[in-house]
Amino acid sequence: EQGQKEEALASLERAVRLDPGNAEAWLSLARLRDADGDPQGARDFALRALSVAGDEPETARSARRFLDRLQ
After folding, report:
1. Phi/psi class of residue 37: alpha, beta or left (left: φ > 0; alpha: ψ in -120 to 50)?
2. Spatial contact of 22 and 15, defined as CB atoms under 8 Å apart
3. Which among 1, 13, 29, 45 is least buried, having the fewest CB atoms inside 10 angstroms?
4. 19 φ/ψ angles, rounded to the nearest 5 degrees
């Protein structure tokens, strides 16, 4: 499980490096950080997802719900 989590993290980090406007990838990073017990990192990534969601209303809603849950 830890190996899969590390692979997912590396893939997502690569995705946001290649496409910093990828709101889904930022939100997935937020979820991984939350699962790892890093609420500040989760919040930072979720805020980034929200800021780049633009024309992705469902992703923006998901990011807002995620942030509300973190509060």
Report:
1. left
2. yes
3. 1
4. -140, 85
